Backbone:
């Protein structure tokens, strides 16, 4: 069986920089609180009339495609990971195909909704398709335009200050070099805590899960919801219920356990120990989580790449943006062992080991 490798990588972040101080003009927060709790100094917001999640993804994809030495027409499969798609449906995969001018129809496009672990899930899917010989140039994109779906009132501050917009992309190709490329991927999920970090409305749930779980107070559903209103009612809008929700401390505690666990699981699979890792690219959820994981894994700070300070948490885009920046800065060289790891909403989490 062939191995799969990352043949080209690219990233794109919108021009507009939003500092912590900028946010203090719309909500009760402070630069000090945000930096102390998360490490974030600023994030980027896309231009709401000229950019979408798809166009951010396309900008990153064009770079990855060029660096892989192919053209957009060579792409034979698209995997698009996002929690902030342009449309409820169809997904961003086909919109990206159109945006890149790929006119051939002998191509598949798959959207995945795995939030923070989306890029790792996507890489794992790509790896399987490449290994079996089904596809040769898979375009994997993680992109988010969070800024359109955040609550900019003080009610939403615990979530809103964390997230930013951006995109990363990779072209996955086969390699005949046995010890190169994706060595393993590990995927996990646990739906028990689905509502601990969730954007539940608009959706078709009609309050079902919340009633079963006794979460009505927290999510405050509109009981008078009618058919035809299943995605959102005016009351839900008036009550500011159409935004993401997170029980931060609960997520934090689980994240710092699951990151080391899933990294070690991947290392064990390939008979390596953590000292073999040349570069760990953790999902950029919180600088404190990354620092904790580094310590737990016995990795010095120069072996862990973080850029959350500049971009905030860009969910599905965070790993490919960080991977790309680390590579561009010369921090990832041929032969290095690169570890990707993520934990987030679902909960879903995972890791990947790549011999670069
Ligand atoms: O990427 C997906 C995975 N996500 C994560 O892994 C995130 C994990 N969680 C976290 O990173 C942290 O829990 C947060 C950064 C989200 C929050 O930090 P925290 O230290 O857990 O704060 P908290 O939610 O416990 O809130 C502490 C206090 C509260 O005030 P009181 O009740 O103590 O008076 C909040 O109301 O901080 C308040 N607070 C804020 N204050 C100023 C919450 N958000 C803000 C804010 N500015 N933006």
Residues:
């Amino acid at each position: 069986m062939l191995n799969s490798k990352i043949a080209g990588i690219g990233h794109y972040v919108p021009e507009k920089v939003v500092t912590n101080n900028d946010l203090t003009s719309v909500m009760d927060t402070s630069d000090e609180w945000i930096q102390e709790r998360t490490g974030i100094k600023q994030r980027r917001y896309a231009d709401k009339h000229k950019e979408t999640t798809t166009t951010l993804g396309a900008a990153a994809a064009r770079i990855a495609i060029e660096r892989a030495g192919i053209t957009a027409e060579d792409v034979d499969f698209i995997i698009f990971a996002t929690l902030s798609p342009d449309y409820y449906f169809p997904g961003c995969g086909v919109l990206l195909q159109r945006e890149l001018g790929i006119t051939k129809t002998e191509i598949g496009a798959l959207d995945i909704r795995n939030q923070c672990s989306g890029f790792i899930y996507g890489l794992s899917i790509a790896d399987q398709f490449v290994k079996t010989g089904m596809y040769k140039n898979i375009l994997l994109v993680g992109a988010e335009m969070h800024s359109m779906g955040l609550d900019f009132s003080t009610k939403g501050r615990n979530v809103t200050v964390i997230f930013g917009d951006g995109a990363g992309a990779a072209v996955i190709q086969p390699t005949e070099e046995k010890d190169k490329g994706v060595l393993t991927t590990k995927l996990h999920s646990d739906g028990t805590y689905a509502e601990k970090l969730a954007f539940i409305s608009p959706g078709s749930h009609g309050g079902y899960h919340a009633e079963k779980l006794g979460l009505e107070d927290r999510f405050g559903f509109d009981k008078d919801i009618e058919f035809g209103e299943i995605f959102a009612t005016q009351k839900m809008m008036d009550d500011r219920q159409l935004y993401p929700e997170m029980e931060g401390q609960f997520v934090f505690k689980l994240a710092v356990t699951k990151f080391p666990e899933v990294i070690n699981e991947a290392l064990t699979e390939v008979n390596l120990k953590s000292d073999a890792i040349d570069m760990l690219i953790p999902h950029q959820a919180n600088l404190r989580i990354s620092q904790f994981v580094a310590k737990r894994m016995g990795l010095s700070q120069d072996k862990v790449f973080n850029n959350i300070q500049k971009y905030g948490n860009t969910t599905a885009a965070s790993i490919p943006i960080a991977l790309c920046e680390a590579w561009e800065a010369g921090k990832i060289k041929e032969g290095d062992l690169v570890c990707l790891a993520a934990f987030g909403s679902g909960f879903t989490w995972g890791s990947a080991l790549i011999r670069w």
Remarks:
- The pocket of oxa(dethia)-CoA is lined by residues 29, 33-34, 37-38, 116, 157-158, 161, 197, 248-249, 251-252, 255, 285-286, 289, 313, 344 (CB under 6 Å).
- Residues 205-242 form one domain.
- Residues 248-269 form the longest helix (22 residues).
